[in-house]
Amino acid sequence: MSAPRRPSGRRPPVIVLEALRFLVVAFFAGAGYQIGAGVGDDDVLGGLNGTAVGVILGSGLGYVLGGVLGRTTASGAERLRSNLHATSAEDLVAGAIGTIGGVLLGAGTAWPVFFLRQSYYAFPLFAFVCVALGYVGFLVGVSKRDGVLAMFGSRAGMAPQPKPAVALPRVVDTSVAIDGRVLDVVRAGFLHGRMLVPTPVLAELQGLADSADDLRRGRGRRGLDILEALRREPGVDVEVLEADVPAVPEVDAKLVRICLDSGFALLTLDTNLAKAASLAGVRVLNLHELALALRPPVTAGEDVTVLLLKPGKESGQAVGYLDDGSMVVVEHARDRIGKELQVTVTSVMTTANGRLVFGKPAGAGAGSGAGLPRRRTGT
Asked: How many domains does the chain have?
């Protein structure tokens, strides 16, 4: 099939073309009047004096050239519209602001050139400096778009692009501190910046640490230890947020209110809290969703269908791959290379080169995985 044809440019309105033509006609009629007035009031053609002949000829020439110039101008404007279609309004506004600033800077810098004796040197030098700095200002304005628009904010009718949740200061809830996996996420380089621990969270952890129940006491102390370990991590700035909402009794509701009032993101492992906060309009970083996204594609005891592609290193082994590229090593299946085989996963190992899955043909010996979920995969 041939590629679909792009629609042609929109035809400019007739009133625009006629308005442009009229302006050109008026210009040339004025030019003809001035030229004809220089000839005098003597009859030039059929009883018409020089002024009338100049106006008539100028108007005719303007009518012809006006149509050409009008269509050329309209088509040029249409091409400009097509070229700017992929450019955002924010880029245009920031670039215009930068251009104006550059031109003003150039004019303020180059105006002494008009003191030159040779005036014909002055204007080209002045224009060169203004154009050069105007272009530099345009480039700077576009490259620093968010900062330029932030200077005007809502007053200009255009707010800067919203920051992603990961770039905002994060309010840490109790579940994150107690779980402790946040420390591994930080050390892996996926979390950094400001982490805020509100006083209600500290009070809740302190209450757990002082509990008479051994389990609750251990969880509270672990949470306090994790916060202290986070404070010592490079790239993380842990701060105690002196904020409370006395009118709200529950800690989770306090955190949602604090995030809404301050524009912070919420870092949590509590799925129910994450859903409630999202519905309230809070930006949420849910570590539980991150853990689910990184979970192994298969688990021990699960049955998968694998296309065996080549022999393994050990005797009797055959190798296939899951859809995500994980290698599957199947015992006692070398004679099935080139065929699909139902495989029961026996173990999953994570190595420096990726995930390695070991399995055996389904139904081979005890624990064949009968009644377990089956998953079909291949190359």
From this structure: 4
- CA dist 213 and 281 (Å) reads 36
Specify the long-range contacts of residues 89-93, CB closer than 8 Å, at least 24 apart. 89/158, 90/145, 90/149, 90/158, 90/161, 91/142, 91/145, 93/149, 93/156, 93/158
Rounded Cα–Cα distance for residues 28 and 57 (Å): 8
Give CA angle at 143 (139, 145), nearest 5°. 110
Q: What is the CA radius of gyration of the chain?
A: 38
- 332 close to 316: Cβ distance less than 8 angstroms: yes
Q: Does residue 162 form part of some domain?
A: no
pLDDT beyond 50 at 150: yes
Q: Which of residues 357 and 40 earns the better pLDDT score?
A: 357
Instruction: Measure Cα distances from 280 to 171, 256, 257 in Å.
Output: 15, 8, 9
- What is d(CA 267, CA 285) in angstroms, rounded to the nearest whole number? 5
Same domain, 243 and 227: yes
Q: What is the pLDDT of residue 266?
A: 92
